[in-house]
Amino acid sequence: MTYLQNHTILSSNDLDEVRESIRDLASRHDFDIKGPNAELNVRVAAVESGDISLMHVTLDATKLSVTSSEQDPDGLLLYMLTSGSGVAHHCGKDLTFSAGRGFMRDLAAPVSATEDNFGAFVLRLSKDKLKNHARSLVGDDVDLMGLSFDPAIDSCALGWTIFRNTVHYVAEALDGPLREMHNPIVTAQMEDILLTQCLSLLPNSYQDSMNGRDATTVVPFYIKRARDYIHAHADKKIGLADIAAVAGCGYRGIQRGFVDAYGKTPMAYLRIVRLKRVRAILLAELDGHAISDVAKQWGFTHMSRFAQDYHREFGELPSETIRKNA
Question: Do 254 and 209 fall within a single domain?
Fold first, then answer.
């Protein structure tokens, strides 16, 4: 599919021309094509309407390495992939991406990536503009923690699905019925929608405040990322090192963050998640399995200690749970 087909500004296989075009539109990137007989075909489409700056970039190359140094401390680039795949290193994290996924690049930090037939919408954002928009919606207290985004965006998250649909809608509108209509009111409305959804639906330090929680109880995005990892991998063997690595911070930082947010350490939080998974099975149906089998499935190898933890959490023994629901 050709995105923003009425706004194509570059179609080229000249690497130097591509570098200059991307630099003028977004930020300076250095491209290098990998492999023998490698070819590059690039299409860039861009549209600006009011303060909306939206591009679609297609880098048709089997292996392309991209590096970009730190540049604009106020700038963000949100990539919403429409094709291809790759890996990137940004803000101390290794990110994988593919069609349907996205990531947020902070232009204050460098990035390096390897891309394979990459295609993406690129939305340029201003931190100051996002902050001002947040203040206009929820008040000055939102700025207590500063604004920062998690570069990794969960492609399965409902918020990302909604935001991705909105970007497609805006692109189609600007490429179609609004192409010849210069209506500042309509443009301002679209910009408000994009800024509001960006702040409320994508993982960032303002997200909870935007969704109605007191700013003083906001859970940092890196703690929420670790929390989500625990829920998704509770049946696997994971330790504090794994959780800290996902969060992108040290042992002390992740310990303190979980205690501040949930009143317990990450490993204690994991234990409770696992206990609740066991209880859900006991309340449903064992299908001929023993309690010990279910407990071991969720990482409990010491049955006496497991029974004590279960009783402490739910006020009854596992066997009593089964009897009550027989």
Answer: no
